[in-house]
Amino acid sequence: MTRRDRAASPWIPRVAAGRLSRYLRYLEELEARGEATTSSKQLGDALGVTAAQVRKDLGYFGQFGFPGLGYKISQLIPDIRRILGMERTWSVALVGIGNLGNALGRYKGFHAHGFRLSALFDANPRIVGRSVEGLKVHGTDQLERVIRDKGIELAIIAVPAAAAQAVAEQLVRAGIRGIYNFAPVRLSLPPEVAYVSIDLAVELEQLAFLVSQRDRDGLEGQDSGA
Amino acid sequence: MTRRDRAASPWIPRVAAGRLSRYLRYLEELEARGEATTSSKQLGDALGVTAAQVRKDLGYFGQFGFPGLGYKISQLIPDIRRILGMERTWSVALVGIGNLGNALGRYKGFHAHGFRLSALFDANPRIVGRSVEGLKVHGTDQLERVIRDKGIELAIIAVPAAAAQAVAEQLVRAGIRGIYNFAPVRLSLPPEVAYVSIDLAVELEQLAFLVSQRDRDGLEGQDSGA
Prior knowledge:
homodimer; 45% helix; disordered N terminus; disordered C terminus
């Protein structure tokens, strides 16, 4: 398979895309340590999947290891970044500057991975006008105008559950193309808007489940989340 | 299948357990609205899976709908809670009271779902002694003693990446049985310790991937995360 074929960017299942993000993190770790190559086995061991699964995941976009050599890290990293849409910087709006929103506004990991928080919004007049990491908080009445003016494509929702659907609809009207929702509620969105949600309590519940299952079945073995 | 058989608590795949948490949230919504029954189709539509998948997931623990009647919500909720290990309250320690840890310490969703934050820890002497929601922050030098004294089983790690592995090892020595990790780093843990992790930037990267994929392939259709 040639480079040209790979550029065709095939459809990749969401679950495989999740693993690609995690391969990428691990490859960046390896590169920082000065490693030049890796193998399906090493990648699989690091993420808790089989070498066959790694080969299949990387095969979606035509990355094949060489017997006895493995993968070139310097080639695999930009290939995965391109497949994930991370060869560019994304502007992100954050709505809801309460405790969680404030923490997300200061979270260093977003910037480190090619995201730029470009606008903050809150409905509370006591929060509007404050600054988080040098960025001023706008009122939600400014949301559509600011997002259009800045050409922002992604938005994080960190408002209370009761307010989330209305905020989502405002974001959709503003032309937002993807929503990352922290409010513990299902949002109803048009199909053209991409959607990722995290319910922090659901993840903790999953941990309780894993501990309970160990109790009941004497089960062992690590199970990595998210 | 009798009630007794169901009490045997079969092994349930992790991905199915994730859906059980989300069925539970939706069932609680339905119950709050005064509904008495639901169907595989309704549950599936709400979560974006097929009715057959719902039947399979609930079948793991012997819950079968009745033709024309569906499932009794008042029976399904406690059954799912029991399977998830949520028929009890879990005590949780939180390590790292920076921006994110502070937000997690105030997050109402944990308490609402049967978790009790019972101890807070930080390594920074300027943070030790502060209170978050009435709970005092201990120094990490007190971690093992406090966790043992209080019989805490679950812990949330919200420290910087560079400190996370050492904190995890301290938690393991203290007898913690499950770790919920927000530090963007893979932790190496003994197999008897359950593990769930969230990398907030990885999830945002997944959103960027979904938007990019729509660009490239004209793909439509919602894809819910985590």
